[in-house]
Write a structure and sequence with these properties.
The protein has one helix and eight strands; from the N terminus they run αββββββββ. By secondary structure, the protein is α+β, with helices and mostly antiparallel strands.
Length: about 100
């Protein structure tokens, strides 16, 4: 479920600003903070962390909507927008967008 929130957050962020300086946001309910930066090539990088529990994660969003990154446990994951498939290589989890 955490990856779904990050995907939704990053998709909103992807469309909300032009290339340039980083944006910072904080979610008071979860304690998560996000540093978002849109590159000149249109890709978006998101660094997330939670200082309360010491976790951090990252996501890179490509212009076509495909994403990949590292979850809060350090596991590599991939999301293919075209197929709707999310794969977490560390946990073995695979989900299909239905």
């Amino acid at each position: 479920m955490k990856y779904l929130y990050l995907i939704l957050f990053t998709l909103v962020s992807f469309n909300s600003f032009a290339a340039g300086p980083s944006q910072y946001s904080y979610d008071y309910q979860t304690g998560n903070s996000y540093q978002t930066h849109k590159q000149s090539n249109g890709e978006v990088n998101v660094q997330g962390n939670n200082y309360s529990n010491g976790t951090n994660w990252n996501t890179e969003i490509h212009q076509n909507g495909d994403q990949h990154g590292t979850d809060s446990s350090g596991n590599q994951w991939n999301y293919n927008k075209g197929s709707g498939i999310y794969q977490n290589y560390g946990t073995g989890e695979t989900r299909y967008n239905q």
